[in-house]
Specification:
Elements lengths: L1 E3 L2 H13 L4 E6 L5 H13 L2 E6 L19 H10 L4 E3 L3 H4 L18 H4 L3 H16 L3 E5 L3 H13 L5 E5 L19 H6 L1 H15 L5 H13 L4 E10 L13 E10 L2 E10 L5
Parallel strand pairs: 1-4, 2-3, 2-5, 3-4, 5-6
Antiparallel strand pairs: 7-8, 8-9
The structure holds pantoate (PAF).
Length: 286
Amino acid sequence: MEIIRIPGEMQAMAGKILHQGKSIGFVPTMGALHEGHLSLVRRARRENHVTAVSIFVNPMQFGPSEDFYNYPRDIDGDAEKLRREEVGILFMPDSSLMYPEGFSTCVDVEGISGRLCGAFRPGHFRGVATVVAKLLNIVKPARAYFGQKDFQQTVVIRQMARDLDMDTAIVVCPTVRESDGLAMSSRNAYLSEREREAAAVIFRSLAGASGLIESGIINVERIKGFMHEKIAAEPAVSGIDYAGVYDPATLEEPAATRDEILLAVAVRIGGTRLIDNMLVSLRKER
Ligand code: PAF
């Protein structure tokens, strides 16, 4: 595995690979890699000639009171995991090279960036869209892989790629879960044992709401009420940012004509903010 730290060197390497007629599959990450990330890496390996992974804890997507400085970091462990997956390139740029003095261009995907998590984390998706645009320009992948767990992120990035005519296919892969349903996330490392147990309520609220929909209840307020009640009953939950039913394309109230809806949750368990979601089909099987 080649480790590259300089954006210009990564660009030159990508140019060489493309010149050989080979495709690059790219998994952008912030490190602290878990099975969710590795599932993206495996898919990238299957679908491309060369697999590139980036590890960059992007300061631009963290708010001033968020966990940038405490975000879990395990470079040696991550590199070992990626070697075992036979990744070709690990790109690990320094912040000063990604955002040199005088840096002044940002990507704002208007509308959807302000909904759901965007309402609680102002500027977050501007930071995500900007760094992903930069990474795609540096790594030049045919395909870039993202987890469905960060659903809003995938909607923002797809919109950006479409609007800016980017030549990379955005591939969204299923959420990988622990045995009790908790979505894998680097932030799960913050949870105490008791909080970790309590966090399973997120998946239970999604699965319960999905069950209601499958039984024919599609009243948005009723499902939202069910989810809030279920989550609030768990004493370790310190706050609910949102929990409810949304349109997967607009992230607003679902349109009556949709054949798929999004159940999405953001809660605080102790001091840790966790998100999860589930897509539910409304189409009746014939
Ligand atoms: O999902 C993440 O880990 C990050 O938001 C990403 C896409 C790597 C951008 O920093």
